[in-house]
Amino acid sequence: MQNYQHKLLTDLDETGFGVKYENNLSAYTPRHWHKAIELLLFVKGRVTCKFSNSTLHAKPGDMYLINSHEVHETRCSRNAVYLCVHISPTEMCKYVPNFDQLSFSLKFDPEDEVKAIAYEQLRIHMQEILRQTEENLQAYKLECHARLFAATALLVKHFSQPLAVEESTLQRSDMTRLEPVLEYIQLHHGEELPLDDAANTMGLNKEYFCRLFKKNMGVSYLQYVYQVRTTAFCRELETSDDPISEIAERHGFRDPKMLNQYFREIYGCTPSEKRKFFREVTLEDGDSE
């Protein structure tokens, strides 16, 4: 079974950075959050990222930043490609003591020449990290980390502001409380996941748990469970030749109608149509080699 990436990023190195060059065929990642800051450079295709109060539509060349503990979901066009840099606030506190109490935003007034220059410098660093990631030459790690530290310094100097202490503490407290439940859903989404059990795990009554979950994740507990099941099912559909019914069973779908309902809601097609798409892409890649 192939699990999708969620809030806990295990690919961060000893310096607190992680770099990924993503080619996304599955097109959708359900609502999630992570402790690391996420800085993205979009290379190909289009990506829609939904937050609690806003929606981003990104195209090639755009950059975007997602703060620590910021719940979001993403939808990608066919063969969307992007560079993703993760920055650990905990590790960055070694260099900037209050780093974990900063909020970042790349939005600025175009008339602000200082920030405009800093933004272009940040883009250059991201483009160079992308080039170094693709070429993977002898000094790759040294050059890449030099760019990562320089990019982070630009974020702190030009694109940060202090978080309200109460806001930061409350949000992170709620997320920390939900973390074991979200983690369990990821690892056991193919099993029965009764609402009562999830509430009991947190020592809460069912009604309060439902309000807490919806407030922080933006969807109900049941919706979230089925989003996780559907995306995990789709990821295996991409790589497995097993019958669709068997894959569905492994990911917690006992009712084909329920699978088709959530799958069409997320991907806009049936599982059979999606499998056909994956196979066509595989053939195209094979023909181009």
Summarize the structure.
This protein is an alpha+beta fold and 289 residues long. It is built from ten helices and ten strands.
Features:
10 helices; alpha+beta; Arc Repressor Mutant, subunit A; globular; 289 residues; 4-stranded antiparallel β-sheet; disordered N terminus; Jelly Rolls
Uncertain runs with pLDDT below 50, 5 residues or more?
A: 1-10
Q: What's the number of extended β-strand segments?
A: 10
Biggest sheet statistics: 4 strands, antiparallel
Reported CATH architecture of the largest domain = Sandwich
- Taking all residues together, what is the mean pLDDT? 87
Overall domain count = 2
Oligomer designation: single chain
**Helix-strand sequence:** EEEEEEEEHEHHEHHHHHHH
Q: What is the share of helical residues?
A: 40-55%
Q: Beta-strand level of the residues, as a percent range?
A: 15-25%
Distance between the termini: 28 Å
Radius of gyration computed on alpha carbons: 20 Å
CATH superfamily of the largest domain: Jelly Rolls
Give a description of the structure.
- The chain has helices at residues 89-92, 113-135, 140-158, 165-188, 195-201, 206-217, 221-239, 244-250, 256-267, 271-288, and strands at residues 17-24, 28-32, 37-44, 47-50, 55-58, 63-66, 72-76, 80-87, 102-104, 160-162.
- Mean pLDDT is 87; it is low at 1-10.
- Helix 2 (113-135) runs antiparallel to helix 3.
- The protein has a four-stranded antiparallel sheet with strand order 1-8-3-6. A four-stranded antiparallel sheet has the order 2-7-4-5. The protein has a two-stranded antiparallel sheet with strand order 9-10.
- The chain is built from ten helices and ten strands.
- It has two domains: 17-163, Sandwich (Jelly Rolls), CATH 2.60.120; 166-282, Homeodomain-like (Arc Repressor Mutant, subunit A, Orthogonal Bundle), CATH 1.10.10.
- It has 289 residues and is α+β, with helices and mostly antiparallel strands.
- The chain is globular and about 55 Å long.
